[in-house]
Amino acid sequence: MERPMSASGAPEWMTAEHSMGTSIMAVAFDGGVVLGADSRTTTGTYIANRVSDKITPMTDSIFCCRSGSAADTQAISDYVRYYLDMHVVEMGTPPLVKTAARLFRELCYSNKTQLMAGMICAGWDSAKGGQVRQVFCVPIGGSLVEQPFAIGGSGSTYIYGYCDAHYKEGMTKEECQAFVKNAVALAMSRDGSSGGVIRMVTVDKDGTDRTCFGGEQVPSF
Amino acid sequence: MSILEYNGGCVVAMAGKNCVAIASDKRLGVQLSTIAMDCNRVFPMTDSLYLGLTGLHTDVTTLHNLFNFKLNLYAMREGRTIKPTTFASLVSSTLYEKRFGPYFAEPVIAGLQADGTPFLCAMDLLGAMAVADDFVVSGTCAESLFGTCETFFRKDMNPDELFETLGQSLMAALDRDCISGWGVDVHIITKEGVTTKSLKARMD
């Protein structure tokens, strides 16, 4: 049987890098953010992990969504978490989301030729009483863009229209959660490299709330 | 990505006691993008003979039309329906004719012979036949399917058990393949006729 082989003659699923095809997004509301992601990690077309967690904590109230090479994004977020820990020791206050985002940008841009990582950094900090504008996108290449909502990963291409049509300024926390859930579900339904469960993290001044929607709970259209 | 993985999809067939069942997923994609969730890759060739084809979908469609054409001529000349073993040889030689420029499709044949015993065989894209008495698989998640079928298969299942076993084997394998899924159709073939059921599966 013809099967994709690597240069060494082994099947692709044994040698290909782990990649997070992915659908990730984050939306800001007044007082916090909602982050969402699918849970599929692939090696070629084999699903290596169908329940992976792509929303990674940097601090108690800053999170990042990871897309691209699993190894690269894990290494980058480990570095940023380490730098933020040092920063807290030096500053004595929890870091700003903007600081975390700038650290991501610094790593991704300086090493752009060797990395394949698209990240979305979002969270809550106490500057200006928890202002809106806490979602930062660091796409492949290492640019930094602050947005009211950000989408990323291979699955995001399928939901640009949906997100542009359904996003409104001034949405409540619950409206943001519904928006994220539906958008990620749509992306999972069309993109081969996205799927599994929908993981969602809501961060505001009262703390962090992690939820997971699987099986029947994933919206279908 | 290999040409056989361009559209995605898989087919599996299993034998029971005087019955066979053949199942496939419903996805049609262009590499990682899904463009249809209602694509058919298992075709009835006679009342008790089904052909499943995985691989490049244009070749799946072409081969389906070609075999319908050949079976019509066969019925006209012979005045009877073709036997499963004969049909398998026909498929094999049709594929091998194109040895140095093959059709990118890998067939699975499931049928009942005249005495009611099941017949199963699978082929690669060049027509190399492998006959089995338990199950046969083909498609992008063939390796996963071998694993699940080997685990769940038992001899001499009745049609209901066969449906359940085949359905669960396929659904478990689909969960580990990016480019198969989006729905499942199962056809159960017995002496009395064919029952087709659709399974509710993950749409990711």
UniProtKB/TrEMBL annotation, chain A:
Catalytic activity: Cleavage of peptide bonds with very broad specificity
Annotated compartments: Cytoplasm; Nucleus
Originating species: Porphyra umbilicalis (Purple laver)
Active site location: 22 (nucleophile)
Protein name, as recorded: Proteasome subunit beta
Oligomeric form and interacting partners: Component of the proteasome complex.
Family per similarity comment: Belongs to the peptidase T1B family.
Stored PANTHER family: ATP-DEPENDENT PROTEASE SUBUNIT HSLV (PTHR32194:SF0), METALLOPROTEASE TLDD (PTHR32194)
UniProtKB/TrEMBL annotation, chain B:
Signal peptide: none
InterPro entries given in the database record: Ntn_hydrolases_N, Proteasome_beta_3, Proteasome_bsu_CS, Proteasome_sua/b, Proteasome_suB-type
Main location class: cytoplasm
This protein's GO CC annotations: cytoplasm; nucleus; proteasome core complex, beta-subunit complex
Subcellular location per the Swiss-Prot or TrEMBL entry: Cytoplasm; Nucleus
Record keyword Cytoplasm present: yes
GO biological process, one term: proteasome-mediated ubiquitin-dependent protein catabolic process
Keywords, in A-Z order: Cytoplasm, Nucleus, Proteasome
Domain of life: Eukaryota
Function: Component of the proteasome, a multicatalytic proteinase complex which is characterized by its ability to cleave peptides with Arg, Phe, Tyr, Leu, and Glu adjacent to the leaving group at neutral or slightly basic pH. The proteasome has an ATP-dependent proteolytic activity.
PANTHER family membership: METALLOPROTEASE TLDD, PROTEASOME SUBUNIT BETA TYPE-3
Oligomer status and interactors: Component of the proteasome complex.
Protein name listed in UniProt: Proteasome subunit beta
Organism: Porphyra umbilicalis (Purple laver)
